[in-house]
Amino acid sequence: MFETGSHDGRTTREGIRIHAREDFACMHRAGQVAARILDDIAEHVFPGQTTGELDRLITEMVAAHGATSATIGYRGYQHASCISVNHVVCHGIPGSPIPPSKHEGRGRGNDVLIDGDILNIDVTVIVDGWFGDTSRMFVAGRPKPFAERLVKVTHDALMKGIEAVRPGNTFGDIGHAIQAYVEAQRMSVVRDFCGHGLGRVFHAPPNVLHYGRPGREATLEEGMFFTIEPMVNLGRPETKVLADDWTAITRDRALSAQFEHSVGVTASGVDIFTLSPAGRFYPSMG
Ligand code: MF3
Ligand code: CO
Ligand code: CO
């Protein structure tokens, strides 16, 4: 027998796993736990709250669902969420001091949210061995108009990417849809981080780029599962990772936002596994 390294299904020549019809229900269960946790954390986001406390609550919620955190113990990471405030692009560490933004000379030196902060909360859970990975933006208090606009453009960019998901389209079509929309709004797409295949693993092929050209990259097939998770900056796209080896910030320290869904390619289009059960995916909803 020829050992392919997979115990069922098949993988494409790009190494992308093709899942079975019955696997969609498993992904839906995992995705809905992650999405429900983001629904439930919303009421805890307010000025004066700390990112450390938000992560503590998320850790409890993961356990209450009988799920496992995919991020605790992942490459040495120790938290059930990433919380990325203002100009933090991704992988912000809950409980760590919020790094100084362009507008705050010395920084606040703590993890306390203040009025007008925008923050991404990213949660990945494992349910019965399947991974659900989703993130959205939240606002502490009242957003500044430019911050609100960034959040809306980033959300809409993710949905434009998802609209390009159907068999026969390519990953380049997804990236192009996102990039074209974001740049038309005079904002920029981060190149240094991408979406990823997932399923019974956290990060698998392909790299899902949030920029690109129509018709490029691998062709989408029914049964592919992956995330789309564009990061959009108000300034330039360049990022840098801080000395903690996780926190990525914008080099120009201008604001950044991100939304993430886990999706599957169906025969006719797309199945979004991480839709908000409460319809609260975008901050102003509900
Ligand atoms: N959930 C993140 C993603 O979208 C990964 C976080 S890995 C961590 O891929 F270790 F930083 F938590
Ligand atoms: Co992800
Ligand atoms: Co994520």
Can you describe this structure in just a few lines?
This protein is 23% helix and 24% strand. With 286 residues, the chain is an alpha+beta fold.
Can you give a write-up of this model?
By secondary structure, the protein is an alpha+beta fold. 23% of the residues lie in helices and 24% in strands. It has helices spanning 23-41, 51-64, 145-163, 171-184, and strands at 10-11, 17-18, 68-69, 81-85, 88-90, 118-127, 130-139, 188-189, 195-197, 204-208, 225-228, 231-233, 239-241, 248-250, 256-258, 261-265, 270-272. The strands form six sheets. Strands 3, 4, 6 and 7 form a four-stranded antiparallel sheet that branches. The protein has a three-stranded antiparallel sheet with strand order 5-14-13, with no helix packed on it. The protein has a three-stranded antiparallel sheet with strand order 8-12-15, with helices on one face. A hairpin with a 5-residue loop joins strand 1 (10-11) and strand 2 (17-18). Helix 1 (23-41) packs across helix 2 (51-64). 47% of the residues are buried. Mean pLDDT is 95; it is low at 1-6. The structure holds 2-amino-4-trifluoromethylsulfanyl-butyric acid and cobalt (II) ion (2 copies). The site of 2-amino-4-trifluoromethylsulfanyl-butyric acid has 13 residues, from strand 6.
Helix content: 10-25%
Amino- and carboxy-terminal Cα gap = 55 Å
Largest sheet properties: 4 strands, antiparallel
Q: Whole-number radius of gyration?
A: 18 Å
Tell me, what's the shape? globular
Percent in strands? 15-25%
Look at the helices and sheets and give the structural class.
alpha+beta
* Low-pLDDT windows of residues: 1-6
Contiguous helical run count: 4
Name the helix and strand elements from N-terminus to C-terminus, one letter apiece. Answer: EEHHEEEEEHHEEEEEEEEEE
Bound molecules: 2-amino-4-trifluoromethylsulfanyl-butyric acid, cobalt (II) ion
How would you state the average pLDDT, rounded? 95
What's the count of strands? 17
